[in-house]
Amino acid sequence: MDKDTIKILVVDDEEGILDVTEGYFQRKGYEVYTAGNGAEALEIINQVKIGCIFTDINMPVMDGLELAERVRQIESTLPVVVMTGYPSLENSIQTLKNGVVDYLIKPVNLEQMELTLKRILRERELFVENLILKEEVERKERLQRLNKELLQRVEEVNTLNRVMEDFAATDSSYGIFNKVVDLGVEELKADKVFFHIYSEQDASLVLVAKSSSEFQNDEILSKYDQDITDQAKAYIIDSLETDKNPCLVADSKNNAALGDPIRSLMVVPLKIRDKIFGVASAFIFQEDRFFSEKDIYYMNFITQKAASAIENIALYENIYENLFSTLYAFVTALEVRDLYTQRHSTRVAKYAHMIAAEMGCSEEELDVINFAGSLHDIGKIGIRDDILLKPGRLTDEEYEKIKEHPVIGADIISKLGLWDREMEIIRHHHERYDGKGYPDGLKGEQIPKLARIMAVADCYDAMASDRAYRKKMDKNDALETIKRNSGTQFDPKAVDAFMRIAHQDLPDDF
Predict the structure, then answer these.
(1) Is 0.90 surpassed by the pTM of this model?
(2) What DSSP string describes 342-355?
């Protein structure tokens, strides 16, 4: 410590001692403050950062021992040295109690006093450094603990987000069941996970999904290859019937019902509206491994999200089916109005599906075109009967009204917000490959591929069916017309696919 920065406070009721001490230490380069009693000393301490205090014991107003105690309360690291001409055992003990760091006997040798000061200041500096170091170590340890806790929380949040994303991306009930067992293995590190549908009526379990575990003990897995053992199944059923907690965890050390080789078993009901719909069961076969509270938390979260996903899918499928039934009722009503086009939409959907399959379309595309085919003429519900059912040739103005039906149909579908691709097909199934179609005059591959396929199927069935203004064409003539318009009205690829299936799959009579 640089002595130029050290401030000394000398407290004594004898002015001679104060003068001598002040002069000596000032010559040595210290900054010295003096006080005649403890009260005066406290005023100085409150105003100046003192480095060390030398004080007499017996003084008026406030003695040295009381001053030492007050200093200890204000700044515990500030060293106090007591000086007295009347040493006693009682005073010595009292000074130790008050935190005094040294005890000098008067008359005090000034050089000895300086040596004491230097020693005390060195010790204080080391003490402060140790305190700082200790605080730094404690702070570092605290930060490490907080960082570890934060990382665990981040990992936990990431896990929960991953679980939610996985279920959000699953679009079928069986996909959800499989996701439960996959997440059970992944997050719980279980050796085997099953998902059963549970029947409260007859207290039975029906296996619907199980994990493809990588656990290597063939002897153990052979017992759990198709399903869990009857003993474990009975235990699960019993736990569902008797234990109303969110889940139950047991291990072979405290529950003989599990039996060897099961080391730990977790049973988690999947509840929908407070009724047990199914149950996830996770098994550990390896010794010295057991499910933890964190595993319980994760599996509960997994089953809760699975339950929500199942409810959402059931609701969506119900809404989807209801909407489709309503729309198809419109088509049926439309076909009842026009006997000549009865079942036209069903046949067009069938032909379009066949062409798309021949062209190698995906399962999703096949579903889309089948749906769009069934509803492709729904827009005709907005066309007046005197135009739609007119037995003779339409006027130009009437034909323009008929041409509005793709837009009307697409608008009906778009309002539902569920079938964007189907809406495009309905809107563009009367576009022509050469750009002369309607309603938007799209050309070539500007026209959606499935709409190009639909155009072929729709036109073929229109020619091969009786209409109000003409009789149906012969099948071969209709096929020849389709072929002749390849590259102008129709997409050549769609025509080629249609021709490959036409003779073997299309009926000769309608």
Answers:
(1) no
(2) TTHHHHHHHHHHHH
